[in-house]
Write a structure and sequence with these properties.
The protein has 354 residues and is an alpha/beta fold. The protein has helices spanning 17-25, 63-66, 78-90, 133-149, 167-180, 192-196, 227-240, 274-283, 305-308, 339-353, and strands spanning 9-12, 36-40, 48-51, 54-57, 59-60, 71-74, 94-97, 127-129, 151-160, 247-253, 260-268, 288-290, 314-320, 328-335. The strands form 3 sheets. The protein has a 6-stranded parallel β-sheet, sandwiched between helices. It has a 6-stranded mixed β-sheet with strand order 10-9-11-14-13-12. Helix 1 crosses helix 10, helix 4 (133-149) runs parallel beside helix 7 (227-240) and helix 4 packs across helix 10 (339-353).
Length: 354
């Protein structure tokens, strides 16, 4: 426990895109923490990061740097979390993990602060898992509609920003865009984009991302799905508490720096209504803001990534019922993948834990 009786928060991965987003959110939160300790790999140790207006030196990840922390947020790859989360628990901390490493561990609760906050308090294993950004951006809306009408199936397509791959993903998009910019006609012949980018070196993506979309996010999983698609399916089922809910997911990498989007086709046991759906989404405590005024004007009628980036809420629009699907609702959602999609939920869970 930090001086003054307030708990100590350690942020592992403090110099990554999620860690930096988490630190930037601290001035907007209640004054919960005593010491806030930034931790990263040995490559980043010694750097300074801004925390609540003060410059703080980043420590190298070690048993010593974790000692004395009350809550440890793991904003790191799965391989790092798998090694160091148990060490942090052994040292007496509660771990909040975003890597997906512990999602299928029965003793580890999967938590979204607006849905099941009590699960974050005194976890049996000492570890709490936060869902993937793709799940976080849609589960609040789906949970509210499910509570009203009972979901029977969900079909979703996600459009995921390149910061999924960290700072390296954003840099790759910038580099490819600069390489292609000014070449009128590029992208109109088979292979011309790949040829122009052939000298840029190794990419974190399986295909060019500038001027392109890639229908594959993650690694290969089961039955033709990717690990990201399987994670979204399993996380939605867990958080909605419908273990066999039919969920079809396609995850697409798109040339957007920051902010995920998702198109949702949700089917319910009862006949649905568009106006009721808007009311439910608006009135529920689910962090959702509805932007849906296309009947009157196309200006700001629905959310797009460039308009909602940097914001904490989840924005929903294009809410509608389609002819031939009386029990279904369509909607389009955007949310900043580094804020509510990652950092904010991690921070909210950490606050709940203490």
């Amino acid at each position: 426990m930090a001086t003054g009786g307030k708990p100590t928060l350690a942020v592992v991965g403090a110099t990554g895109v999620v860690g930096m987003s988490l630190l930037s959110l601290l001035p907007t939160r209640d004054d919960v923490w005593g010491e806030i300790r930034p931790i990263a790999s040995s490559r980043s140790a010694g750097r300074r990061v801004s925390i609540l207006g003060r410059e703080v030196v980043v420590r190298a990840l070690s048993a010593e740097s974790l000692a004395g922390a009350d809550v440890v947020v793991m904003a790191v790859p799965a391989i790092v979390s798998a090694k160091w989360a148990p060490i942090a628990v052994e040292a007496g901390a509660i771990v909040v993990d975003s890597s997906g490493t512990f999602t299928h561990t029965p003793q580890v609760p999967l938590v979204v602060s607006e849905i099941n906050p009590d699960a974050a308090r005194a976890p049996e294993s000492g570890i709490v898992a936060s869902p993937s950004a793709a799940t976080l951006m849609m589960v609040g809306a789906l949970h509210s509609l499910h509570s009203a009408w009972q979901l029977t199936s969900v079909v979703v397509t996600t459009f995921q920003a390149v910061t999924d791959a960290g700072a390296g993903g954003a840099l790759r998009l910038y580099d490819e865009t600069m390489e292609l910019a000014g070449n009128q006609g590029v992208g109109q012949s088979p292979g011309d984009v790949r040829r122009m980018l052939s000298d840029l070196g190794t990419s974190p993506f399986l295909a060019p991302i500038a001027f392109n979309v890639i229908p594959w996010v993650g690694d290969e999983a089961d039955a033709g799905a990717t690990t990201t698609e399987s994670a979204v399916r399993d996380e939605l089922r867990s958080l909605l508490r419908v273990s066999h809910l039919p969920v079809a997911v396609t995850c697409v990498q798109v040339p957007v720096v920051r902010t995920h989007s998702v198109s949702i086709h949700a089917t319910f046991a009862a006949e649905s209504d568009r106006d009721d759906a808007v009311r439910i989404l608006t009135e529920s405590s689910n962090s959702v803001v509805v932007l849906d005024d296309s009947a009157n004007s196309l200006d700001d009628a629905w959310p797009t990534p460039v308009d909602v980036v940097g914001a904490d809420p989840i924005f929903a629009g294009r809410v509608r019922r389609v002819d031939g699907f009386p029990n279904s609702i369509e909607l389009f959602i955007c949310a900043d993948n580094l804020r509510k999609g990652s950092a904010l939920n991690l921070l909210q869970i950490a606050e709940l834990a203490v």
